[in-house]
Specification:
Length: 131
Amino acid sequence: MTRRVASCNCGQLTAVVHGEPVRVSICHCLACQKRTGSVFAVQARFPADAVEISGESRRYARTGDEGTTARFHFCPECGATVFYWPEAIPGFVTIPVGAFADPDFPPPRVSVYGVRRHAWVREPEGIEHLD
């Protein structure tokens, strides 16, 4: 079974996952752009029972455009977001793909909020669009 470790910049907060993600997606919404400091976010969803979290985190709850809330957990030392709990998808943990720092991580297969995609961004061929 595949084992991957996601962590913050300083290594204090980690999420160890067992198995492959059930979904890897790109989000172009403005909130994700602000949260990541990039023009989009890439995240992987895992069943909660496949994730072991350790370390101290602070939490930020944000209600999205569709009215559901996600609780983002970030390191109080370095500020990096390591995981979040989407209220709309009980039983799953979402982890920013960059927290794995793994160039071989599976590519995204789904793209959301494409209407807010920066014109110069190119997505993987064949990606599914849910807008």
